[in-house]
């Protein structure tokens, strides 16, 4: 279809400098001040405005003693000028970021148990290499994160499968074991006990993950295996951070990843109870959507996760060392 002559005239004659002048005129309603804003002389600005109005074929501003007022069609043109300049500015900024090697965006879902070790090390290495990469980390528990992956709100996930059929939708690459531990605050009456039983513990207040989380499922299975009921005094909490705050506030028990409570135990804010639980919890790993290629930044991040992970074993993992200059 042939391009209308009026359109060709605009394409051939309209420049970004013209758009900048229009926006400046709309801001100050004065040719002299607008010329100063775009660094041209007033006569040049006046000629530019004349050329612009000739290209459009109608008057953009009404001139009067108090300045300049956009005409009805002029207001439409000014709105376009603002949009075009804004898009050009965003394009230029994004291009500058790409030129500096920090382009792109990566959104990762991650369980908190992986955060202090594998995730933190991989993120540190990634941001050292690509400081301007826009990185977002979402989620806390595997059930939350798998939902984010389903809804395409994350590019990949560091979690575990939560149902037996999810292997049909996601690829899973095991990375490491998430060791669970039972903790109480330092002033808890159980803190100085050398031995405890699960039957004793269910009588105390508990803070537990939601029933849909793998850790909670395992907890309920261990209770069932021991012939015990779910603790009657139980607070469900899907936030690891909130759980840490709660267990440190009153005499309750929480089952949390060892990597998450490690520093709290070292600082004597929390105490590990002398009982093993959650040994059969499956290891976590990298979850990606099937038949879908990863973006380049996500593919590189996966390589970093592999680099800082350790093979799954039945013994607690020591945190790997960070060597980002290799």
From TrEMBL:
The keyword Transcription regulation applies. The keyword DNA-binding applies. Keywords: DNA-binding, Transcription, Transcription regulation. It comes from the Bacteria. Transmembrane segments: none annotated. Residues 14-71 form the HTH lysR-type domain. GO terms for cellular component: cytosol. GO terms for molecular function: DNA binding; DNA-binding transcription factor activity. Pfam families: HTH_1, LysR_substrate. Belongs to the LysR transcriptional regulatory family. This is LysR family transcriptional regulator.
